[in-house]
Each structure stands twice: as structure tokens, then as C-alpha cells.
Design a protein that fits this description.
Blueprint lengths: L6 E10 L3 H8 L10 E13 L4 E6 L15 E7 L5 E6 L14 E6 L10 E2 L16 E4 L6 E6 L14 E7 L4 E2 L5 E4 L9
Length: 202
């Protein structure tokens, strides 16, 4: 729920997309990555209350996506946060399953909207406030704003080395979000949980 009372709800959809390079990628990756000629995308649905109808009226944004050669499973499992300046920050899961994990590193993918979720900037990778990139598996993340301090936090997996598809899903971190960039404040990175000696690699 946004400060203006509207609802911004991101959801995964599929959209038509294909070019010669993506056709080659699709032929070499696991078949659970979707149908040929389509990629996973995210649309933001915006709900505005209509007092007269006693119901919400819904509109949706254009799809946010990347070519399959960047994320073989497209964009998925989106989470959204309203920043202090009113912009919306969208965090999405991607996947490099079937690709070279070093040449096509696993990342967290983000986009920013300055108009309440109707239009979104090109997708880029989430980074630290230092500008550094980090590795991440294909997994869910979460935004939480502290009721005590008002600070925005991100919770998710950051890998110690190149991630391959869904793995490894450890450690699990929490970090404060620099809302002006936006990016993760590297000096706030804190491990919530990690793989123990009794846990398998998976």
C-alpha cells in the first residue's frame, strides 16, 4: 500500500520475445525455463479506490523483462518497496541456469519507477552503495521497513562466489538500503543464517 492510498502489486507474467541469440540460448538450457518465443516478465498492477463503485480500479504497467540470454527463466518472484522520495523499487529473481556461471553471473535484478509503478526504468543489477557487484542465486528476497527507525532493509541470498541457477542458497543476509541510489549499504551487511556442517550443499 503506497502513501497515496493506492496499491502497487507486482506479478509475474509471460511476454513474447525472441531473437536469434535467444533462440540459441533456449536450445541449450533446461526445458523448465518456459516456452520458446516467450520470456518471464513482471507487470505492476496499480489499484486505485473508487468510492462511488466501492471497489478498486486497476491499471497495469508495461512488462519489465530481460532477454533469456541474461536470465534464462526471465524475471520472477518480484517484491516492491516505496522509497522515501516516492519512487518504487522493484527487486526480481533471475536465473543463469544453463549458462556459464562466470560469463553470465547470477544477480539480483531491479528496476525503479518514478510515477507510481506505471513506467519502469531498464532492468539493472542490484549493487552495493560502493558500486560493487555481487553474486546471487535465483531465490526470493524481501523488503522490510523498520517501524522504529524508518529505515528500509533488504533480506536475501548473496553468494561468496559465482552462483549457478538456484544455488547456493546461503548465506542469508540483511542489509540497509541506500534509498537515494538505490543500493545496499555494504557496511550494514549482516548474516542472518548460513550453511552449517550438518547441511547439504543444497
Amino acid at each position: 500500500i503506497l502513501r497515496n492510498g493506492q496499491i502497487a502489486y507486482p506479478a509475474t507474467v509471460t511476454v513474447p520475445y525472441e531473437d536469434e541469440e535467444d533462440r540459441k540460448v533456449f536450445a541449450s538450457i533446461p526445458k523448465y525455463t518456459g516456452a520458446p518465443g516467450y520470456v518471464g516478465a513482471v507487470r505492476c498492477f496499480i489499484g486505485k479506490w473508487n468510492q462511488r463503485k466501492d471497489d478498486y480500479e486497476w491499471t497495469c504497467s508495461k512488462p519489465v523483462f530481460v532477454p533469456r540470454r541474461i536470465s534464462t527463466r526471465g524475471m520472477g518472484e518480484p517484491v516492491i518497496a516505496e522509497l522515501k522520495d516516492g519512487r518504487l523499487l522493484l527487486d526480481m529473481r533471475g536465473s543463469n541456469a544453463g549458462l556459464d556461471a562466470v560469463k553470465y553471473p547470477g544477480r539480483r535484478w531491479i528496476s525503479v519507477s518514478s510515477d507510481g509503478g506505471r513506467n519502469w526504468a531498464p532492468v539493472t543489477d542490484l549493487r552495493y552503495d560502493t558500486g560493487e557487484q555481487f553474486y546471487a542465486p535465483s531465490s526470493m528476497a524481501r523488503f522490510i521497513r523498520s517501524r522504529k527507525t524508518g529505515k528500509l532493509y533488504w533480506i536475501g541470498n548473496i553468494s561468496r562466489g559465482p552462483a549457478k541457477g538456484n544455488l547456493p542458497r546461503y548465506p542469508l543476509f540483511i542489509a540497509e538500503v541506500d534509498e537515494t541510489i538505490p543500493a545496499l549499504k555494504k557496511n550494514t551487511l549482516t548474516i542472518i543464517d548460513d550453511r552449517s556442517p550438518d547441511d547439504t550443499e543444497a
